[in-house]
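Lecture 7 notes: from sequence to structure.

We start with a single chain of 244 residues. Read the sequence below before looking at the structure.
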Amino acid sequence: MSIPVIVLGGGSLKGEKQPKSFISLKGRWLIEWTLEALKSTSEISDILVLIPPFKQKKKLSGVKVEFSNSDLIGKLKKGVRLFPRSDWLLLVSGDLPLLTSESLSDFLKRSFYFLADGYYPVLSRETMEKKFPGSQRTYGKLREGFLTGGNVILLRPQVLIDNWDLGEKLLEARKKPFQLAQILGFSTLIKFLTRTLTVKEAEGRLSYLTGYNLKAVFTPYAEIGLDVDKPEDLNMVKKFLKEV
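Now the structure, written as tokens:
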């Protein structure tokens, strides 16, 4: 299977004016590290990069680049239109400098083990801390433990097309477990507050709201969960690259 990819670049670190995608890391832009992993993943075909307009001293090679000042949903709408015949799309955040082709291939393999319309990687706090001690992630407490989401999503494009409004709410709440639980409904919120909500129940509720079968996929690869949202994240990445 050959899966096209939409890479979403945008946002800036605190105190920075330039998009974080263009932060220099060991002589390469942050987004170039992400693209390297994507290009070396055999299951992936076309790569579309959606980034804000920015004066670049060099060009991104081997990918299609589209400039957009839109918010995340606006970028997604544009990206989906550019792949009108695709059965699947892989959405990837552009700030994953430690992402590897091994972690991506493993996620895709684990995903397609299940029959569903969309897949989202889930990581335990133990997985994150083992690989990146002290990493400051946002965790939700479910019955299975403290969990965080990854920064890639595999789904059928129609899932997005039929759920733009819900998708916008979920994206706004993606770093806020309590708000996510509110979106899923009152009973889900109560279970979340009492820490009895299970991953399967959350899957079921989200599948009901979207009208599509959606699946959480546990991954042992912490690289999928480490994005660069804060200066502290960038410092951790630099430290890790220096040590390996």
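Residues 170 and 183 are 8 Å apart (CA to CA). Keep this in mind for problem set 3.
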